[in-house]
Structures
1.
Amino acid sequence: MTDKPDRVLLPAHLFLDRLGLRYERLSFPPETEKGAANVARALGYRERQMIKTLIFETDRGEKSLVMLGGDQTAISGKLKKALGSRNIHLASPESVLKTTGYVIGSIPPFSWQPAGFRTFLDQSLLSEDILGVGTGQWGEEILLSPENLVIASSAQVVNLTERDNPNTPA
């Protein structure tokens, strides 16, 4: 972990510290426009490396976290297969706040999930050296290895973005 003494530790930092996982803290100007592409530009990384944390809901009311690179879009059929439902949609901002405790824009992919909550990471992201995730506070980012992200988030690694590859866990 890299830390400056005057910076507050957020729940996401404390969670990673409890797990003993290595990460780096970076800050970007809070006036940066929302979006992974803008965070990537502000921090000097590729858009693929800045993770979008999306909450999807099924017709059964189950909510799941889906992590994609900032430049990626999930293939609908692969996402439906992973979530086990043909009827899925992005959760509303109100539902996201109620589910995660965070507003859309900087949802950390760990530290808030109840037992049994399902989280998915696109398998192509395992080939990146470093990934950036939100902390729950706009202007603060956590950088960590894909392996540590999988551990911290208890993510199931699946293909959500590559049409010609199967949807099986990596």
2.
Amino acid sequence: MTATPPNPTTADGADALAGRFETHRGHLRSTAYRLLGSLTEADDVVQDAWLRASRADTTAVDNFGAWLTTIVARLCLDRLRTRTSRREDSLDVVAPDPVISDPAGSSPEQEALLADSVGLAMLIVLEALTPAERLAFVLHDTLGLPFEQIAPIVQRNVEATRQLASRARRRIRGARASIDVPLARQWELVDAFLAAAREGDLEALVRVLDPNVVARADFGPGRAPAGRSQVSHGVREVGQQAMSFRNLAPGARLVLVNGAPGFFVTTGGKPYAVIELAFGPGGITEIDILLDPDRLARLELPAEW
């Protein structure tokens, strides 16, 4: 005999619903973060999802977690569409919010966010997708949802939803290159990069960079010469700019940035930059740098730091 779900209009029912929601909060937050690349927006979406759930009749809901995930996905899709319309005339690169963790171990909250982690390079590529492509790819390829469940969210049939994910997959193929480079080799390249920067050795730095390396820096609104970001290409241009990092390199700490090797830089006891690296057979292929002081001040850092 199936138990009757608690009535959400009563105090006991509301408490029971809140308890059920809390068991899914971590998953919902990580889903929203993957879809939006923003921890602040992810928290807002989860709160909006709770408000909707608390006002709904859930007595007929068979799979509460899947139902909540659908609500979060639809809320994220609305935000992505609004964001796209606002940025369509902008050439700026906006770095997603990084998730920083200690290579020696992460907190349960960080581990929830990093499960099936989406690196910054991947999130930046996702920014170039249409909202529907991004949703179909993340929900299916990252979170494993069936296309039958995704199709109603993006308002397509199942085959069209498959095509959305397939187009997204082709566009982001390069963002997964680091998977083919052993982790030990990735850390070797990080160490070599930092050593060369500390010594001001341009030639040593160039040797660890892929010939087609790309560096993207997000300074924050109004802090770059033109807009908020700066993109550099090629070993010489990227290497020369990395030389300006020489005086800051001693304050760099090795960290995982969205599960990938990188470093966290402080100066004067305050966060200065978060840098994630991507890797290929020829060395470091991408360098993503967050320099926005407002967002750096809101970083979720390990409690023991």
3.
Amino acid sequence: MMSVARFLILAVVAVCAATMSHGARAQSITCSATMTNVTFGNVNPLSSQTDANATLNYTCSNSANATRYATVCFSIGDGAQGGGASNPRRMQDGAGDPLLFQLFQNAGHTTVWGSSFFGVNTPVEVDITVPHNNSVSGSATMYGRVVNGQTTSVPGAYQDQFTGSHTAVTINENNSSPPGSCSTSILSQFPFTVTANVISQCSVSATTLNFGTVGLLLANTDLTSTLTVQCASGVAYQVGLDNGQHASGTTRRMTGPGGLINYELYRNSTRTQRWGATLNTDTVVGSGNGSNQGLTVYGRVPPQTTPSAGTYNDTITVTVTY
């Protein structure tokens, strides 16, 4: 009985040793990877498309005594601030305001760098051949893009952190050729951070103020034009108008073949508030919302001595201070 017991124990040990040895041969390749951060820098919300690249570097080693083959997959999820968004992805500022972006595999920005485990199922797949007791290294470029048309983005610092389970490296190994598909077993991660800074920005355009054809200047001639101001959300601004190219003191004047014609520009329809360029005094104030905001310029040519016939004009410079 005692000899039988010893025999059975030895048999069990032998079976276990054989099983463990077989498992080691089945997974001989290990990989490590790093990703540089995606730094978009300053983003103009009025023209928000901004590109930035990052680089994945990886090294895979083979501990077996024979050449091994594998398909290594690099997956990227939504990030800590992504909130489940995958196409496009999402950064956030400290107040939770969103800024949309995407990460791509190709320079044409058409193939999303996705994940085998979440969202867009397009991880980067790399087929490798690793000689016995050797290693191979490689790299891949990631192409980032902030989505265009985000005019309502609030100025400030944004980020999305791809830490922990938001990235994954999987290895699908074979002893004859790369399998061409991803494993479902996560072996390591490659953390990185995406950042952007939405800047305060404004733009302005103007239509021509045309007083039309006027006979004798015996009464007021009133016409209007429009300024269009677009500023980032929450940006306080002031719009000022200079005195033009032919002013005498603060009296605006148009020039033409017969000399000069006085005129004036106002902030209100009753034409009692002159529109000038002194901040907090005679400018028009507003707050941006990311959209175009129209401001009316009220023009007037007052009664005066009528010069000879011809075309009279002046150029006004519009300044937006924010």
